[in-house]
Design brief:
The chain is built from eight helices and nine strands. The protein is an alpha+beta fold. The strands form three sheets. It has a five-stranded antiparallel sheet with strand order 2-1-9-8-7, sandwiched between helices. The longest helix is centred in the C-terminal third of the chain and has 19 residues.
Length: 258
C-alpha cells in the first residue's frame, strides 16, 4: 500500500539511507543519510556493467569457466545458472549480470576484462574516482561480502552512477527489461526489479546482503525529468517497492505543481 502525501510533505521512508534526485535539474528531492558510507550489495554490478560496456564489444565472446560458477556457489551469491564451457556474447552476459544479478556472470566478466578479478576491481575504483564518486570503494565485481571487508558507497554516489550508466542505451535497455531469453533458448532470465511496470520506469538494480540489508536503485522518466532514487539498508524486502513508488509519485506531483 503506497502512502498518499501532500505535495509539500516528503513521504516517510524506511531504510538506513534514502535519496531521491532529479537528474535533469540536478535538484535533491529527498535526502536521508545520502552521504553515509555503507555496503551496497549488488548495486555494485552497476559499476561492473559500466566498465564492461566501456571496455568490451557487445559481440565479444566470453567462455564461462567452472571457477565462475564455484565463486558464486561458495559465496552464496545469486546466479544466472550459467554452465561451464558455454560461450556467450557480452550482449547476453549483460542480461545475466543485471536481471537475475548473476555473480557467476560478474566473475566471468571481471576475469576477462580485468584481465583478472583484481585488475577489474582496480578499474572499478579508478572509474569511481574519475566519475567523482568520492565515497565509493569496491572490493569485488558483485558486492558480496568478503573475509577482508566489504566495499562501500553512499546513496548519493550510487544515484550519480546510475544516472551516468543510464546514458548508455544498452544499459538502459537491459535494466528496463523484465524477462530475457537467449537466442538459442538455453537461458531465461527474470529481472529481480519489481518497479518496471510503473510509468516511465527505466531500471535500475536490486541488491541484498546481511550487512547491506535490502537495497534498490530505481529510476523513471516523468514529465521530462529523469528521477533517480536509492534505498540502502531496508529491513523489509518488499517495502522497497512501496517506498520507491511513493517517492516517484510524490516527486511527479511536485513537478506538475510547480
Amino acid at each position: 500500500m503506497t502512502q498518499h502525501v501532500s505535495v509539500d510533505t516528503p513521504p516517510r521512508v524506511h531504510g538506513r539511507a534514502v535519496y531521491l534526485w532529479d537528474a535533469t535539474s540536478g535538484k535533491d528531492l529527498l535526502d536521508k543519510n545520502a552521504a553515509k558510507r555503507m555496503p551496497v550489495a549488488s548495486l555494485t554490478k552497476i559499476m561492473t556493467a559500466y566498465i564492461v560496456l566501456r571496455d568490451a564489444k557487445l559481440d565479444d565472446k566470453v567462455t564461462i569457466k567452472r571457477e565462475d560458477l564455484e565463486y558464486a556457489w561458495d559465496n552464496d551469491g545469486s546466479t544466472a545458472d550459467l554452465e561451464a564451457g558455454d560461450t556467450l556474447p557480452v550482449s547476453e552476459l549483460m542480461y545475466a549480470l543485471l536481471l537475475p544479478s548473476g555473480a557467476d556472470a560478474a566473475h566471468a566478466l571481471a576475469r576477462v576484462y580485468g584481465p583478472g578479478v583484481p585488475g577489474f576491481v582496480n578499474k572499478m575504483n579508478a572509474a569511481a574516482r574519475q566519475l567523482g564518486l568520492k565515497d565509493t570503494l569496491y572490493v569485488n565485481a558483485d558486492g558480496l561480502p568478503t573475509s577482508h571487508g566489504d566495499g562501500y558507497s553512499t546513496a548519493r554516489d550510487q544515484a550519480r552512477l546510475a544516472a551516468i550508466a543510464l546514458q548508455n542505451p544498452v544499459f538502459k535497455k537491459v535494466t528496463s527489461t523484465s524477462e530475457h531469453s537467449t537466442d538459442d533458448g538455453r537461458y531465461d532470465w527474470y529481472n529481480t526489479n519489481h518497479m518496471l511496470d510503473l510509468p516511465g520506469a527505466i531500471g535500475v538494480k536490486t541488491g541484498s546482503t546481511d550487512a547491506a540489508g535490502f537495497c534498490l536503485a530505481f529510476a523513471a522518466d516523468r514529465d521530462g525529468h529523469r528521477l533517480i532514487g536509492i534505498i540502502l539498508g531496508e529491513d523489509v524486502a518488499n517495502r522497497r517497492w512501496d517506498t520507491a513508488e511513493t517517492l516517484l509519485d510524490w516527486a511527479t506531483d511536485n513537478l506538475t505543481s510547480t
